[in-house]
Design a protein that fits this description.
single chain, 230 residues, mainly beta, eight-stranded mixed sheet
């Protein structure tokens, strides 16, 4: 009788262990929710900067500005049962000391992607009469496939040349006076894994202090990081 009870216990234990193992195998792997889907950085014709964000459903977005470091901290978190009001956000950005930085901080990711921009405050230059920019406006957007889309418009009679500077590892858009009738441009750019994406607009203009001299001004400059690159 004791042997019979022991056999039953062994059989039941084996059955339960087998069922648990089977259920564990069938459980799907937990995947991390993508909080930030894509974004679009833009500078309009007035020189004002802003960024548009597309986020996942039920994602909360908060912005904190660190004026001392010219940094915009954008925090992304899951709503945990609370229904988020929207999936698209837009926020203005201010240039402090000719630059600003955006950090994207997600609660479920240790990486902190960022965008750094170096540019003049065109509104200030316009008031002082120093604005001679050949670039009218531009946008840089991150697509869902990881590529970047660069769109920009230039003023009349501006020649545009695209160059990849291997020494500086930088995509350069050279602008100089000419007779071109084209003013609208677009390029798709792939970011190498583990490398910064650097885009410079290089304006070739006459130096007012030296009539024959031409100077190259590297502004605006944009540096995109995925948080795991140099």
């Amino acid at each position: 009788m004791k042997k019979f009870n022991l056999v039953i216990i062994i059989v039941l234990s084996s059955f339960l262990f087998s069922s648990c193992s089977s259920n564990d195998a069938e459980l799907p792997e937990e995947q991390s929710t993508v909080l930030l889907e894509n974004y679009l950085l833009k500078r309009d014709a007035t020189g004002a900067y802003s960024i548009d964000l597309n986020v996942g459903e039920d994602v909360i977005v908060d912005k904190v500005v660190n004026s001392m470091e010219s940094t915009n901290e954008i925090y992304l978190s899951e709503s945990y049962g609370k229904v988020a009001q929207k999936t698209s956000y837009s926020t203005d950005l201010r240039i402090e000391n000719e630059s600003f930085k955006i950090n994207f901080i997600s609660e479920n990711d240790n990486k902190i992607p960022s965008i750094t921009v170096y540019d003049d405050n065109i509104k200030f230059l316009s008031k002082s009469g120093e604005n001679g920019s050949m670039l009218k406006d531009y946008t840089i957007s991150k697509n869902e496939d990881g590529t970047f889309e660069l769109d920009f418009n230039v003023n009349n009679k501006v020649e545009v040349d695209f160059v990849y500077n291997e020494e500086l590892l930088t995509y350069e858009i050279h602008l100089e006076e000419g007779n071109s009738k084209e003013s609208k441009f677009s390029r798709t750019i792939e970011k190498e894994e583990g490398e910064l994406l650097k885009i410079d607009f290089v304006s070739h203009t006459n130096n007012a202090n030296a009539k024959a001299a031409v100077v190259a001004i590297r502004k605006p400059r944009v540096i995109v990081s995925d948080g795991d690159d140099g």
